[in-house]
């Protein structure tokens, strides 16, 4: 297995950065054409990791309440001006997110949260469960503009949103069914499958240099023998 040099890796990052809002498939095609000696799967992994890194960096801005409050006020002002000038509703958040170095769906979530807080009268009245319920069901939002924003932000965000989450769920289900079928063929029980997943994850954490908490626990779904084996194998890694 070949190891990519830091120079090649940064060249790949440059191509990704230049891609901007270009669809993922086209960016991957560009990467494949320029770095044809690297498997497409590896290029996709690098691309996905880079986008997620950017997503995480941008998301840290939205942990600041003052920043989010100002963002919400800007959104309301632009919405009012757009409706006044265009005589019809247009999506505001995707463009606003691009200007602030954010992504559409995370910006929509922050603005929606501020909208719910405004309607409730204070922050403590709005729970995460309420926010999540409305996000999953945009038709419950008591605001036509934000319903429109939910559609546009979801279709323009590559990592998060209603469409992306649904596709990810479907793909996950497909792989789960394939895995279950293959496990049955080699006669591996469900408890052994779960044990294998937990054991592999703990080993991965240790190899990465992080300390796994005592949280790699054997839950009641294991048989007593599986539980003992899990603890015994996990202790070998400590």
Instruction: Compute the average pLDDT.
Output: 75
The N- and C-terminal alpha carbons lie at a distance of 28 Å
Structural class based on helices, strands and sheet pairing:
mainly alpha
Main beta-sheet annotation: none
Taken in chain order, the helices and strands follow as: HHHHHHHHHHH
Shape type: globular
- Which radius of gyration do the C-alpha atoms yield? 23 Å
Q: What is this structure, in a nutshell?
A:
The chain has about 240 residues and is an all-alpha fold.
Written overview of the protein:
With 238 residues, the chain is an all-alpha fold. It folds into three domains: 6-57; 64-159, no CATH class; 163-237, no CATH class. Helix content is 71%, strand content 0%. The chain contains eleven helices and no strands. Helix 4 (65-86) crosses helix 6 (104-120). It is globular. The two termini are 28 Å apart. 19% of the residues are buried. The model is unreliable at 209-227 and 233-238 (pLDDT under 50).
List keywords for this structure.
single chain; about 240 residues; mainly alpha; 3 domains; about 70% helix; globular
Helix/strand layout:
Elements: H1 6-19, H2 24-34, H3 40-59, H4 65-86, H5 93-99, H6 104-120, H7 128-136, H8 144-155, H9 162-185, H10 190-207, H11 224-237
Helix pairs in contact: 4-6, 5-6, 6-8, 10-11
